[in-house]
Write a structure and sequence with these properties.
This protein has 198 residues and is of the alpha/beta class. It has one domain: Alanine racemase (TIM Barrel). Helices cover 39% and strands 18% of the residues. It contains 8 helices and 8 strands, in the order βαβαβαβαββαβαβαα. α3 crosses α4. The longest helix has 21 residues. The chain starts with a strand and ends with a helix.
């Protein structure tokens, strides 16, 4: 996925011409403007920023996959807003696998219960898990966090047979190879595609 936060639509068009088909955005308002500018392209739009419940109705209208659901409150609001537009919203549950206070995401030990609740919602399709590891910029140091998310996924699938978590969103420009080795299906690449942000 090409992470296009703060990148102008014209530059995103160049990435599309080079083969990008999935675009990741961090802010609903910025994504709305880009969505209008790029509406003619067959893109899959993913939301990867922190989502507040009061923005859920806009997120449901824009995004194919929301990576950052980390509370029952947010999941319920997305379910409600998706029902209003007759949509089944695809989501990932964001897990704070490192336990850092500065990171969003549900603690790993609380994730199974949240997933059980979400699996009963009619207008939500739970597709997998997402995490943001600590910033080391040394792929081998972050690899254990990716492995931990994969193990958590496997454990949840074993104990909740009605749940299928095929997607693991983990890894960015500095560590995506390690993430792929640990089972990532979605890597969030910004700098390596668009260069350093201003």
């Amino acid at each position: 996925m090409a992470v296009s936060k703060t990148v102008a639509a014209d530059i995103v068009k160049e990435a599309i011409a080079a083969g990008v088909t999935i675009v990741g955005e961090n802010y609903v308002q910025e994504a709305r403007e880009k969505f209008k500018a790029l509406v003619q392209y067959p893109l899959s739009w993913h939301f990867i920023g922190h989502l507040q419940s009061n923005k859920a109705k806009y997120a449901v209208r824009l995004f194919d996959l929301i990576h950052t659901v980390d509370s029952l409150k947010l999941a319920l609001e997305l379910d409600k807003q998706a029902a209003k537009v007759d949509k089944v919203q695809q989501i990932l549950v964001q897990v704070n696998i490192s336990g850092e206070d500065t990171k969003s995401g549900i603690p790993a030990d609380e994730a199974p219960r949240l997933i059980s609740e979400i699996s009963r919602m009619e207008n939500i399709a739970l597709k997998g898990l997402m995490t943001m590891p600590p910033y080391f910029y040394q792929p081998e140091k972050v690899r254990p966090f990716f492995a931990a998310l994969r193990k958590l996924r496997d454990q949840i699938e074993q104990t909740q047979p009605n749940v299928s978590l095929s997607e693991l969103s983990m890894g960015m420009t500095g560590d995506f190879e390690a993430a792929i080795r640990e089972g990532a299906t979605l890597v969030r690449i910004g700098t390596a595609i668009f260069g350093e942000r201003q």
